[in-house]
Amino acid sequence: MTTDLLQPVIDDQRLLPILEKVQKGERLSQADGVVLFRTPDLLAVGYMANLVRERLHGNVTYFNVNRHINPTDVCVASCKLCAFGKKAKDPTAYTMSLEQIWERAGHGYTDAATEFHIVGGLHPELTVDWYCEMLRGLKERFPKVHLKAFTMVEIAYFAKRFKMSNEEVLRRLHEAGMDSMPGGGAEIFTERVRRIICDHKIDGGEWLEIARMAHKMGIKSNCTMLYGHIENEEDRVDHLMKLRAVQDETGGFVTYIPLAFHPDNTPLEHISKTTGFTDLKNIAVARLMLDNIAHIKAYWVMMTPKIAQVAQRFGADDIDGTVVEEKIYHDAGAETTQGLRRNELLGLIRAAGREPVERDTAYNRVERSESTFAILV
Ligand code: V47
């Protein structure tokens, strides 16, 4: 369809040159990104993002059968954005024993889960051997399950605590069974904002450097951006451009997940929750700017299943998975359920007019036998 025919769909004339680029498959600039975040014309941005999404993935929406495991909420950092981390002396803080982690991993979906997503607080006493044993124990008990574990922030902390290089930590954990890494901890790379929302964390440059290093060692990862706090449109675009530049170099990011800030129980409680408009805008702009990252995930836990479903027509091609038990968002006031059954995910995706495809972490299709269906429904 030509740009002329689309005039009625586009209210904001500033979007016309961007539409032309999208139609020709050309890369969008920093200035384009700012226009996309600033325009109120959500439907036009969504239309363009959907063009790219369907070009890449047709009518398919991916989901997986996964389980989140958070071994500890003890954390030496006190990031203002977080409601999950607790000090070691806090009577409500927890650290699971290795046996508890292995046992928890096996609850319910044992024979069906294809991925464990493992992240935790920055614990001041756990050792590198403990983390390696945790991974080896999971691999022994669940050899077919992909272990997506530890953020770049955890790797940097381990390196400091264990007096090792980031590379050495990555190598030890990889050898023990860490297959890939989740995308958390990236927050917003701009120092001005980072200093306020997570001043105890590594800076944006180090986050990107560890991602680059992991990718070069053959360890893929996801990437994220936390939005809806004190960042502005330029900060968001800067973040996306930095991810895009690393991806040009390494090709190691599998999926991008925009994460909406949940303020409850954090020192930033006065900030309003994001709206459905902002959530959909972040999905759509990411799809348009991140032309070299294959997948955009609308994480239903964070967006609510309803918005994550609509997002499948605004640029997203993934809705995440069964999750089973989620702590980071629920500690910060998420009102979504803790997990969704496989059939519920299928229903949400089909009702959006998309074809659900169960995937593993590397986006291979998962074919189910009758026996695993019985566990999953
Ligand atoms: O790293 C922490 C963010 C992340 C809050 O890789 C908060 O597949 C909002 O990274 N409000 C954890 N966000 C979640 C995450 C993730 C989730 C799903 C899939 C994947 C993946 C990764 O959540 C943290 C931080 O960036 N976070 N506190 C909060 N109050």
List its salient traits.
single chain; 377 residues; alpha/beta; TIM Barrel; 2 domains; three-stranded parallel sheet; 42% helix; binds ligand V47
Descriptive report:
The structure is a single chain. 42% of the residues lie in helices and 11% in strands. The protein contains 16 helices and 9 strands. The model has no long low-confidence stretch (mean pLDDT 93). By secondary structure, it is of the alpha/beta class.
Summarize the structure.
It is built from 16 helices and nine strands. With 377 residues, the protein is of the alpha/beta class.
Chain-wise SSE layout:
Blueprint: H1 16-24, H2 30-38, H3 42-57, E1 60-64, E2 66-69, H4 98-105, E3 115-118, H5 128-141, E4 146-149, H6 152-161, H7 166-176, H8 191-197, H9 204-216, E5 221-227, H10 233-250, E6 253-260, H11 276-289, E7 295-296, H12 300-303, H13 305-310, E8 318-321, H14 328-331, H15 342-351, E9 355-358, H16 370-376
Helix pairs in contact: 2-10, 3-11, 4-5, 5-7, 6-7, 6-9, 9-10
Bound molecules: ligand V47.
Ligand V47 binds at residues 81-84, 151, 182-185, 187, 222, 224, 226, 257, 259, 261-262, 266, 299, 320, 328, 332.
